[in-house]
Amino acid sequence: MFTGIVEEVGTIQALERRAKLQRTSIQAKTVLDGTAVGDSISIDGACHTAVEVGSDHFVVESVVETLTRTTMGDLATGDPVNLERSVRLADRLDGHLVQGHVDGIGTVVSRDAFEDNINFTFEVDGGVARYIAEKGSVAIDGISLTVVAVEDVGDRGRFSVTLVPHTLSVTMMGDRQVDDRVNVEVDVIARYLERLIQAGSAPSSGMTWDTIRELGYER
Question: pLDDT digit string (tens) for 136-153?
Fold first, then answer.
């Protein structure tokens, strides 16, 4: 489990691609503190297990499922990546609960700078978009962000977020351009709510969408 607060930007040091596995070495500093083999680290929002930890780098392995569902397979030597160690129970939750389980890959469709901020609009599959709501939380490449607008576009969806100067300075989002691909993870609470509604359709339950709205949530 993570918080979506990036601890540092690492650099892809080396890549070894095999038939059904990618071995990635990442140069880092902050996230190495207290990290041992077997610990979890979020790489651009995708949870990975450290299989090797050195003095200035760590190594992870990505299987086909991860390479298919995330942007890990797009990486090249020298690329920057957002890094975060898994959260401890004593840590403050400054972002939102992020599992590191990427729901889909989004595409940057617009990038608009104003003053020192940048407003990004992303397009995602409708199956992912249904869980994204205005003023809700979403993780983009492992960064916890607040959704400022949503729009349905046919069977797909678009949503916008605004990055302030601090976030741009401590993550690699400032490098993102139109047509770039990003990892998107929706707020897990939205998924639990949907499951609750589905279970609520049983005769023994009075849970409905009207009930959820009365509690302050919107579909």
Answer: 999 999 999 999 999 998
CATH topology of domain 8-85: Elongation Factor Tu (Ef-tu); domain 3 (2.40.30)
Three-state secondary structure call for residue 95:
coil
Under DSSP, is residue 134 helix (H, G, I), strand (E, B) or coil? Answer: coil
Q: Give ∠ CA 124-116-82 in degrees, rounded to 5.
A: 50
pTM value is: 0.87
Two tokens at 192? 């639990």
Question: Is-same-fold flag (8-85; 104-186)?
Answer: yes
Tokens found for residue 121: 């609009």
The domain locations on the chain are 8-85, 104-186
Give the count of alpha carbons within 13 A of 49, CB side only. Answer: 4
First to last CA, the chain: 26
The fold of 104-186 is Elongation Factor Tu (Ef-tu); domain 3 (2.40.30)
Residue in the structure block whose two tokens are 């969408």: 209
- On average, the pLDDT of the chain sits at 92
In the three-class reduction of DSSP (H, G, I as helix; E, B as strand; rest coil), residue 195 is classed as helix
List pLDDT tens digits, range 35-53.
999 999 999 999 999 999 9
pLDDT exceeds 70 at position 203: no
Q: How far apart are CA 157 and CA 77, in angstroms?
A: 32
What tokens were used for 102?
Answer: 């990427």
Longest dimension (CA), the chain: 59
- The angle at the Cα of 168, spanning 6 to 50, to the nearest 5 degrees, equals 25
Tell me the two tokens of residue 1. Answer: 């489990």
